[in-house]
């Protein structure tokens, strides 16, 4: 355990992350001493650092040809100096690193000061002092509600996972009387993971009903805002989708888009049989919408079906408008296959499509950057130029680098992207209504493999150690999975399927958020912003 070497490696990563080019190292009094202890001037010159400055110096010149690497202690004085620096930047771009935790309010102040958008990244990943207790409270509340006093395993590559595991264990130990539940033959297990181990899953378009609603329309406390849908009636401007109170939604929650449309179509055709004179074809989603509009009696009798026809109709409109079938096919290729030549051609082709939205364009380049991060023939710089020509904002372009810093190879503790022969991957096709065909669902989240290994007793202690000396000898039965940084509905589907196919195993999935693209963008743009402290538990029919 060599502290000097550890600090030297940390500073080396800071410098290397800024890429090639001339650099200035901007420090405070204390970090200047730290750097001088671990690096000689000749050594750091070899890393293209040609200038050393203090953040509190008032006599620095403008040098727009230099990149600034800021290595600072997170003091109020340093944050204020940095705010003033960003308001009148002297260098072309800033890479900001703090030696310890920085608060969300200070991150926000820095973001507001960065009016010229010169900050490339802010590093300082750790729990905010106010957030860790909130997440601990939420997680222990879930354990108490489930009447579980679990053994705990955590992701070793994530310091945040370890700290949360220790915090939960501390509460269980302190409040041992509250957690004194009836002992079971096999103790329950809490598995704490970090989103950064799988940054790909939140970036993929999904094709199950619940996931599509959340991604394209937004699902907030089971409510969907449809007020912006063209021609929407007053009674459908906001609708509720709850598996507890909506039988159709409960039965179709995890079905793919084509099957949902088919199920609605079948319900309508059953009703039409009662009115043979008025029978009409129901070949597409637009036919179904017209059918509902023309039958007030049907709307009155079947408000639930009317609601779902409206929702599915809007989903279909958005899929067509944004060409999500084609986008999703390329996303799946990036996530699951290993053909760089084909991938780069398809990404470039889509970026040149004027109908491709800014969100989908950035997401495709993010996936490419993660998938081919170290590829010798990477065309990432060219794709970034393509985003710029397309008019994508600088703020969104910066997210590409942010997602690599958040969940790239250097950060991941697991093998997210294994070398795979493209021929070995079987494409799955779902057929449904016209306009809802060829939906690719090749991808499986990393969580599937993690849970599969856990249930089979093969999850490595070296990567997911137990907190404390005890360990499970038998196959786990009750598993609570918690993902720091948020879970996705694709992962909820994985848990649902495991609960159905693994007799005697009951899994609950939770996290600090339930992601869609908007949440994912925020997470990757501000990597230190782990304040998503509401505990979200996905309904996976596990309890």
Automatic annotation (TrEMBL):
<dbReference type="GO" id="GO:0010008">
    <property type="term" value="C:endosome membrane"/>
</dbReference>
<keyword id="KW-0967">Endosome</keyword>
<keyword id="KW-0653">Protein transport</keyword>
<dbReference type="InterPro" id="IPR036045">
    <property type="entry name" value="Sec1-like_sf"/>
</dbReference>
<comment type="similarity">
    <text>Belongs to the STXBP/unc-18/SEC1 family.</text>
</comment>
<keyword id="KW-0472">Membrane</keyword>
<dbReference type="InterPro" id="IPR001619">
    <property type="entry name" value="Sec1-like"/>
</dbReference>
<dbReference type="InterPro" id="IPR043127">
    <property type="entry name" value="Sec-1-like_dom3a"/>
</dbReference>
<dbReference type="Pfam" id="PF00995">
    <property type="entry name" value="Sec1"/>
</dbReference>
<keyword id="KW-0597">Phosphoprotein</keyword>
<dbReference type="InterPro" id="IPR027482">
    <property type="entry name" value="Sec1-like_dom2"/>
</dbReference>
<comment type="function">
    <text>May play a role in vesicle-mediated protein trafficking from the Golgi stack through the trans-Golgi network.</text>
</comment>
<dbReference type="GO" id="GO:0016192">
    <property type="term" value="P:vesicle-mediated transport"/>
</dbReference>
<keyword id="KW-0333">Golgi apparatus</keyword>
<dbReference type="GO" id="GO:0000139">
    <property type="term" value="C:Golgi membrane"/>
</dbReference>
<protein>
    <recommendedName>
        <fullName>Vacuolar protein sorting-associated protein 45</fullName>
    </recommendedName>
</protein>
<dbReference type="GO" id="GO:0015031">
    <property type="term" value="P:protein transport"/>
</dbReference>
<keyword id="KW-0813">Transport</keyword>
């Amino acid at each position: 355990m060599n502290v000097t070497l550890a600090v030297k490696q940390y500073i080396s990563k800071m410098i290397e992350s800024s890429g090639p080019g001339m650099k200035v190292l901007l420090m405070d009094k204390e970090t200047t001493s730290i750097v001088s202890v671990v690096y000689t001037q000749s050594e750091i010159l070899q890393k293209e650092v040609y200038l050393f400055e203090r953040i509190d110096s008032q006599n620095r010149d403008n040098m727009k040809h230099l990149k600034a690497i800021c290595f600072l202690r997170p003091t109020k004085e340093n944050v204020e100096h940095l705010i003033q620096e960003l308001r009148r930047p002297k260098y072309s771009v800033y890479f900001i690193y703090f030696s310890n935790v920085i608060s969300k309010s200070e991150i926000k102040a820095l973001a507001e000061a960065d009016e010229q958008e010169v900050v490339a990244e802010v590093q300082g990943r750790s729990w905010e002092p106010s957030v860790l207790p909130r997440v601990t409270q939420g997680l222990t509340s879930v354990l108490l509600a489930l009447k579980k006093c679990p053994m705990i395993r955590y992701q070793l590559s994530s310091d945040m996972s370890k700290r949360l595991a220790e915090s939960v264990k501390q509460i269980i130990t302190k409040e041992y009387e509250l957690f004194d539940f009836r002992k079971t033959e096999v103790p329950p297990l809490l598995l704490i993971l970090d989103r950064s181990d799988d940054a790909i899953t939140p970036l993929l378009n999904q094709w199950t009903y619940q996931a599509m609603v959340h991604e394209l329309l937004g699902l907030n406390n089971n409510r969907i805002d449809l007020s912006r849908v063209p021609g929407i009636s007053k009674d459908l401007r906001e609708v509720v989708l709850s598996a507890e109170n909506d039988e159709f939604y409960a039965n179709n929650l995890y079905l793919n888009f084509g099957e949902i449309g088919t199920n609605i179509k079948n319900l309508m055709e059953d009703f039409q049989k009662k009115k043979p004179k008025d029978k009409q074809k129901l070949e597409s989603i637009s036919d179904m919408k017209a059918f509902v509009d023309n039958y007030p009696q049907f709307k009155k009798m079947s408000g639930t079906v009317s609601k779902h026809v409206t929702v599915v109709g809007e989903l279909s409109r958005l899929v067509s408008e944004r060409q999500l079938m084609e986008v999703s096919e390329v996303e799946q290729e990036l996530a699951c296959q290993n053909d760089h030549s084909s991938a780069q051609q398809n990404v470039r082709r889509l970026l040149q499509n004027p109908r491709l939205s800014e969100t989908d364009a950035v997401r495709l380049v993010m996936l490419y950057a993660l998938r081919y991060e170290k590829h010798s023939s990477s065309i990432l710089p060219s794709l970034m130029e393509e985003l710029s020509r397309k008019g994508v904002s600088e703020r969104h372009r910066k997210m590409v680098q942010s997602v690599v810093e958040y969940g790239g190879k250097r950060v991941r503790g697991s093998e997210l992207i294994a070398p795979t022969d493209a021929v070995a991957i079987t494409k799955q096709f779902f057929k449904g209504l016209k306009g809802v065909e060829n939906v690719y669902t090749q991808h499986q989240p990393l969580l599937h493999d993690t849970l599969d290994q856990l249930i089979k007793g093969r999850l490595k202690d070296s990567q997911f150690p137990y907190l404390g000396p005890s360990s499970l000898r038998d196959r786990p039965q009750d598993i609570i999975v918690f993902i720091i940084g948020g879970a996705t509905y694709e992962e909820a589907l994985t848990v649902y399927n495991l609960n159905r196919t693994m007799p005697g195993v009951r899994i609950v999935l939770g996290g600090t958020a339930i992601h869609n693209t908007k949440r994912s963008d925020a997470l990757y743009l501000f990597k230190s912003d782990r304040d998503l402290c509401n505990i979200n538990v996905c309904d996976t029919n596990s309890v």
